[in-house]
Amino acid sequence: MAEFVRHRIPFAGRRAVTAPATCAQRHIWNLMQEQLPDAAFYDVCYWVALPGRGTAQDLLDVFTELLGRHESLRTGFHRDEDGSLVQQVVDADEFEVEVWALAAHDDPDGVRQAWERRMRHTPFDPARAPLIRFMVTVVDGAPVLAAFCVSHLAVDLTSVRMLADEMTRLHDARAAGRPLPPAVPARQPVEQAQLEYSPRGRALQARARAYWCRQLDGAPTTLFPDRGGPAGPVRYSAGMSSCAVALAVPVLARRWRVSTSVVLLTVVARLLGRRAGVSSCTLRLLTANRSDPDVRGTVANLHSEVPVTIGLEGDRVEDVARGALAACTTAYANGLYDPDDVARLIASARGPGAPVDLSYCFNDVREEQALPDAAEDGDPVSDGGLRAAMADTVVAPDEFEEGETFFIVIDDEVPGWIRMVLNADHRALPPSEVHSFLYDIERLLVEYAESAGEEPDPAAAVGITGGTAPANT
């Protein structure tokens, strides 16, 4: 039977320093306050498989090295006397790690999943660094899996992936007896805050504020008129795994000369716009804010949400997609802004007699979203592969949770497949329509890919015409 030992390991960093919180840190802090009392809502768990080399002590040393390298992992947060959020980097303390010894019949994934469920109900105290915990599973004395749970205050998704890659590289070197690879030079959050308070940072935030004002002025009041239902928000999530989507998206990206992410965004926007009967659709995108070379290697939370308005009028969907690409480029250039100021702008923005609702999010978390190279394995359109692949699509309930009216996440963790998870408020999309909307995305992508330039009608998709989804829901 699997057994574990909990360790408290000391760490040391280069400096202890206190500074104002960055815009991204304040943004996540505000979102966390909205989720209370669920203080662990924005904690993130991630894991990596290991080749079974080295020892558990090697990994403990690696974790200690990571804490020393990255100030974001040694940072706590508190309000100062005037109520402003402050980041406080500590130079020394202890972190927690569980080392699990597994017998041959134990399931490493099952042990990890149980640990993750426990972490989900073990919130961090944001004032007490470090905001990260680790676990290791060991078989016959060698580590086979490492995982960590970390607060979103400390890292964003890009950082989580970089942290996992760095952990693997450091462990490989440690297990082989080689010197550890050096840390990548990168701006730390304290220096990011200094930049944001500099004249350059103020100018960037002023530009972003003007961009938000323009977006709010032009956004539809709502994409989902209230159709009744529960008195308060009740949300439901479903996920669709589709090989057909994975085949169709690169075909359309090459044809329309846009990224694969813009292809997906265009189709989602067209379906939303058709439902609402509007000529444009405003959604919030999540941006990594890493165009500056100095932060490309930064392990910290830099992400923000930016609105983008997709114009839906035009004779060809390719024109809509090209317009979406231009709109996204402008949106991503305005990712540095004061979150408290923007919250006030949103609260005061009004359409015809009602506040503007921007509670619609599109989040493509795939690592590769660029315009793909030409296909090497034949054309899935001409050989009928798209229609055949649709038979394998599965849609099922999902545990994903969000607080928005409409939130869709795209990933491709399984090679050859794209997974889309949609979380929606019942008052906007009841569960049956969540399933139908996902099928609509797949169906429309396949029809666009098969149309070779001719425009299929988005209203022919099942969710819009009131038909039913296939039986494998």
Please describe what this structure looks like.
The two termini are 37 Å apart. The chain is an alpha+beta fold and 473 residues long. The strands form 3 sheets. It has a 7-stranded mixed sheet. The chain has a 5-stranded mixed sheet with strand order 1-6-7-8-3, with helices on both faces. The protein has a 3-stranded antiparallel sheet with strand order 2-5-4, covered by helices on one side. 37% of the residues lie in helices and 23% in strands. A hairpin with a 2-residue loop joins strand 7 and strand 8. The longest helix has 21 residues, at 431-451. It has 13 helices and 15 strands. It is globular, with a radius of gyration of 23 Å.
Looking at the structure, what is the overall shape? globular
Averaged pLDDT: 90
Share in β-strands: 15-25%
Order of helices and strands: EEHEHEEEHEEHHHEHHEEHHEHEEEHH
Q: Termini distance?
A: 37 Å
**Fraction of helical residues:** 25-40%
Integer-rounded radius of gyration: 23 Å
For the biggest sheet, the summary is: 7 strands, mixed
Structural class: alpha+beta
What topology, given as strand order, has the largest sheet?
A: 11-10-12-14-15-9-13
Structure summary:
It is built from 13 helices and 15 strands. The protein is of the alpha+beta class.
